[in-house]
Design goal:
Length: 116
Amino acid sequence: MVPYVATKSAITTLTKSLAKENIDYPISINSVVPGMVETDFYKDVKTDSEGKEELESLPYVLNAFGVPLNTVGNFFVELASQHPGKETGKNYSLLKGFRLIRGISLITWYKITGKI
């Protein structure tokens, strides 16, 4: 997981730096952090015996905080259709607002009910 997390941080910094360096050009340089999207990435997660309990909680975490794949796709289409240079240097997060509140509520409920 360390390389995965480090890469996300690097992309955020790279996006802002490239946008600043190219501010005089009519281009947009942005990045998107979609949050947890149910893909094969989560199906093939391996763990040791200490992480087994966390891995068993994964379906509940995905249900609480997962962003539907079509939501991610639609966001990328919307972002790509903006006028070039209109917005640049932004890091967009799709896990915010109601989706985040819903996720926190679900995780709390799962803990109260003993599911995780």
